[in-house]
């Protein structure tokens, strides 16, 4: 992928922050708090700063002295050394300074700004009620109005993240490239007969992604042989059962590069009977007919309806949506479904999955999933998952 200098990345983060600041000013919000902690993970911390995990991020509509920008922001990390290495263009304040108490950290940081007049701070909408009350108490001395609500700055950021910028697209394409390499290795292992079990393929993925400079899998790998492929998401993710074997075997995995994940599913079709072959053909047809509808300005629900129509003609039903956005999280806005709101459309810069699937307790399951970048003129399929026929 193209190399981005620290200066370029700082500029990208700055542009993201300025979009949020515009929203804050339009809505009279003085400060917004983002929290990335166990039980309440929010990738917006990484989105705005580059810091990968475990931190508070506070952005304020207060000009930073000496900097020609209408904001002052703070990163309060659990690991100071990691923050200094990974974050850019943000003031780092050690969490230890506040005894690792988020309420204390937010209250003391905001009090240092010495803002006057009406002051509103938005905390994450998923904040538990007892913690919300602690924030209210901690900020009462500074006369801050604490907001914990839907349709907030946090929701605005979710919408922002749905449309990827140049850096995000490059990172996701690199994750896709590594994923394609792994798919090729898996197919080679199948045809050369050195992949035999679900755990073999799962451990191969883990090994190869690390060799290629990726951080981790995007989610727990799902490798299900014919005895378990009827489940949309097999549980457990993988075992020591044969993979592949006669029938339908599914593999669903993603790899993460610089925070951004791919998401692909391939099916191995080995010595199928007529009914199993029909499932495979229907899934391929649904993918083929739905892909042209992944286009800029197109209503997202129409793509979902197209896949449903393909299956309905064969008296089949897909038990999940056709796709979803990907990025810093494995499931992001938008959801690609026939039930999606009429007003939600594909936009250039979105990266969404296309993953039709059918599942039968007796026949097994088949799913074909690839990642699709919406462009100005159409789309680009950036992964190359497939049906491997044996």
From TrEMBL:
One molecular function GO term is: metalloexopeptidase activity
Extract the SUPFAM superfamilies matched here. Creatinase/aminopeptidase
At the top level of its lineage, which domain of life is listed? Bacteria
List the InterPro entries hit by this protein, alphabetically.
Creatinase/aminopeptidase-like (IPR036005), Pept_M24 (IPR000994), Pept_M24_MAP (IPR001714), Peptidase_M24B (IPR050659)
Please state every residue range assigned to the domain named Peptidase M24: 170-376
Where does the UniProt annotation place the signal sequence? none
Q: What is this protein called?
A: Peptidase M24
Q: Which organism is it from?
A: Treponema saccharophilum DSM 2985
């Amino acid at each position: 992928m193209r190399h981005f200098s620290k200066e370029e990345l700082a500029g990208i983060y700055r542009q993201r922050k300025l979009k949020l600041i515009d929203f804050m000013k339009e809505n009279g919000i003085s400060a917004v708090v983002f929290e990335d902690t166990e039980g309440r993970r929010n990738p917006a911390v990484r989105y705005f700063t580059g810091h990968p995990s475990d931190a508070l991020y506070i952005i304020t509509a207060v000009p930073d002295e000496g900097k020609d920008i209408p904001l002052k922001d703070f990163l309060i990390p659990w690991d100071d050394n990691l923050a200094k290495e990974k974050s850019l263009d943000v003031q780092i304040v050690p969490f230890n300074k506040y005894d690792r108490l988020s309420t204390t950290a937010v209250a003391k940081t905001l009090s240092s700004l010495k803002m006057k007049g009406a002051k509103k701070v938005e905390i994450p909408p998923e904040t538990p009620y007892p913690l919300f009350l602690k924030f209210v108490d901690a900020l009462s001395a500074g006369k801050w109005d604490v907001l914990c609500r839907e349709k907030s700055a946090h929701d605005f950021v979710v919408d922002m993240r749905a449309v990827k910028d140049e850096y995000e697209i490059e990172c996701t394409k690199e994750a896709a490239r590594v994923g394609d390499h792994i798919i090729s290795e898996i197919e080679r292992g199948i045809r050369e007969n050195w992949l035999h079990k679900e755990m073999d393929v799962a451990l191969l993925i883990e090994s190869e992604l690390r060799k290629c400079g990726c951080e981790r899998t995007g989610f727990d790998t799902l490798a299900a042989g014919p005895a378990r492929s009827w489940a949309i998401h097999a549980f457990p993710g993988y075992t020591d059962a044969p993979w592949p074997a006669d029938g339908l075997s599914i593999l669903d995995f993603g790899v993460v590069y610089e925070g951004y994940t791919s998401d692909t599913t391939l099916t191995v079709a080995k010595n199928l009977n007529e009914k199993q072959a029909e499932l495979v053909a229907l899934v391929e047809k649904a993918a083929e007919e739905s892909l042209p509808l992944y286009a800029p300005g197109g209503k997202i629900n129409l793509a979902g309806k197209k896949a449903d129509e393909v299956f309905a003609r064969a008296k089949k039903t897909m038990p999940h949506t056709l796709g979803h956005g990907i990025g810093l999280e494995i499931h992001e806005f938008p959801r690609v479904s026939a039930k999606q709101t009429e007003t939600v459309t594909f936009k250039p810069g979105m990266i969404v999955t296309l993953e039709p699937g059918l599942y039968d307790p007796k026949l097994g399951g088949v799913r074909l999933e690839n990642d699709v970048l919406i462009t100005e003129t159409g789309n680009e399929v950036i992964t190359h998952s497939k049906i491997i026929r044996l």
